[in-house]
Amino acid sequence: MSLELKHCPILIAIALAAFLVLPSISLATEVLIFAIIALGCSILLGYAGLLSFGQAIFFGLGAYVASLSQIHLGVNFLVGLLIATAAGAIVAALVGALAIRRQGIYFVMLTLAFTQLAFFISYTLDEWTGGDNGLLDVPRNSVNIFGYEIAIDSSEKFYAFVAISFVLIFLALLRITHSQFGRTLLAIKQNEERATALGYSVKWYKVLAFVFSGSITAYAGGMYALFLNFAPLSNVELIMSEHILIMAIIGGTGNVYGAVLGSLFLVVVGDMLSAFWERWLFMLGGILILTVFYMRGGLISGLYGVFEFLSQKLGSASTQKES
Amino acid sequence: MSILTTNRLTKRYGEFKAVTDVNLDVQPNTLHAVIGPNGAGKTTLFHCLTGVQRLTSGRILFDNKEISKLGPEKRSSLGMSRSFQVTSLFLEMTVRENLQIAALGVSSIDGFRFWSSSASTVKKTAAAVDYALETTGFENRAETIAGDLSHGQQRMLEVGMALAQQPKLILLDEPTSGMGVDDIPMISNLVRRLTKDITVLLIEHNMGIVLEISDKITVMQLGQILVEGTPDQIKNDQRVREAYLGGETEDA
Is it true that domain A2-280 has CATH number 1.10.150? Predict the structure, then answer.
């Protein structure tokens, strides 16, 4: 319980700060959605040590499934998102179980191939996905509980919903990363051979990591489609997988808050720079290189470093005063 | 009543016969050593016993159960743990965390507990971890990061990892490999003490240690068993002298 007590206020503060500080509410919405998506990637990369280019599959899947549930099934948006999450979990289990049959570079190649496959499936099934044009005019069907209608028909309401989702998902993932399962994943990442010899069925641990990662990514993908009222084909492109990986790596994968920083950085800096510099991705490449060379723990480790430095400075200043 | 037996265990790589028709018989609470010059098939035999390699033919019985076809991850829960010849630890974790992970490996579900804190899950390992810490002398260094330990200490922890699983049988793959002469007694004393509670199967290159601490010795040569007996019998066996001691007296 102490874990939730400690982190819940921090997460609520992040959600409030994003709302109050960022120039627009849609930017804040996007930051929180992509923070969840980057978090899904960190679970695989930071805990299970799996560098996967497959995150766009779950992101795009969530967007399509949530949208289709709104258009064709007419279910409310909550049910739509839950269906998207379940679809993400199932597909992640399948993709994960197949991809982890190979290790290292071959695993990476398999995830690339699965993303390409998902892209062409989405492109071909244009009756369902809208193909190149994307799925347009996605409604947000309101929830009816005991006669009360809950609609998320304004951007403020939608932000509130995204913020609640953000806090709950981060709390859940904090619990998972602080569990024995999280620790076992770290052990497998550090030494797979020893973990196997100790009795761990490494395969199933990796599949479960994929399921957690895929389901929250699909949930966030669903929210993104409802946010835009649109599910574009670009959601399932390889470049989306890259984008998600870069967010997770720049933010830092060993800590859940790294995902927030990664998302904040890419979404906000991207938004600001792209307004007056079309080639801003050039700079992003430079920053990624610097991060990999000098800040392996990502921005979050840099931030902790600064905190530590300041607290030491302040600490030594106060002890000097005392003496 | 033997704890581990192999019946005509054979492993071939293509045409090459690495191990042929090996019949081992390990008695409980003894220290059984397998020795032999390089290329005798010790390591292949070890890989077959731990499940890393599949046998070409033959059978392995552990505690009266056929285990020939079980993967390495299935054997620890039956009560069979191993150490590695090249130190294989979780180097970014503390000694205690290493032992906790080891202790939980024998349970098929504890590692999957994702909703309760790891602190509550590892509580049940306290006795096993304390036993391993005490036996290997790590009580005061339990919170040290494994990667910061000296080589000799890492070798000790390597054995400790297997002990934390509270096995019936422990398979040690050259536990003294790469250790300085001064540290070797630390390991050999530890191994000797273990037979009070468990059975030890030791694969070793160092003849001196083996003669000193074993109850029974199996000498291998060219993938087959050459001689088997007590240290005294082995010491005085002419064939062993020719095959092993003759060429490698500097190791003894």
Answer: no
Average model confidence (pLDDT) across chain A = 92
- Domain of B181, CATH number, reads 3.40.50.300
User: Cα distance from A140 to chain B (closest Cα, Å)?
Assistant: 32
Using a CB–CB cutoff of 8 Å, tell me whether A304 touches chain B. Answer: no
Q: Name every chain B residue with its beta carbon within 8 A of the beta carbon of A176.
A: 114-115
The SS3 call for residue B4 is: strand
Say what the pTM is.
Answer: 0.91
- Is residue B196 a part of any domain in this protein? yes
Instruction: Judge: B75–A187 Cβ closer than 8 Å, yes or no.
Output: no
Integer Cα distance of B236 and B229 in angstroms: 10
pLDDT digits (tens, 9 = 90+) for B233-246: 998 888 888 876 55
Question: Is residue B87 in some structural domain?
Answer: no
The separation between CA A23 and the C-alpha centre of its own chain, rounded to angstroms, equals 22
| Domain co-membership, B72 together with B96 | no
Domain boundaries, chain A: 2-280
A191 contacts on B by Cβ (under 8 Å): 88-91
Interface membership of A208 toward B (CB under 8 Å):
yes
Distances (CA, A) of A7 to A41, A256, B92: 20, 11, 25
**B92: nearest CB among A179, A190, A204:** A190
pLDDT digits (tens, 9 = 90+) for A141-187: 998 888 888 888 899 999 999 999 999 999 999 999 999 999 999 99
Cα A208 from Cα A191, distance rounded (Å) = 18
Domain boundary residue among B166, B195, B213?
Answer: B166
Contact A187 B118 (CB under 8 A): no
Inter-chain CB proximity A183 and B91 less than 8 Å: no
Question: What are residue A39's phi and psi, to 5 degrees?
Answer: -65, -40
Assigned domain for B135 exists: yes
Query: For residue range A252-290, what is the model confidence (pLDDT) as tens digits?
Result: 998 899 999 999 999 998 888 887 777 777 888 888 888
Contacts of B50 in chain A (CB under 8 A): 197
Q: How many domains does chain B have?
A: 2
Match 């199996």 to its residue by tokens: B218
In B, minimum Cα distance to A185 occurs at B111
Please determine, for residue A317, whether its predicted confidence score (pLDDT) is greater than 80.
Answer: no
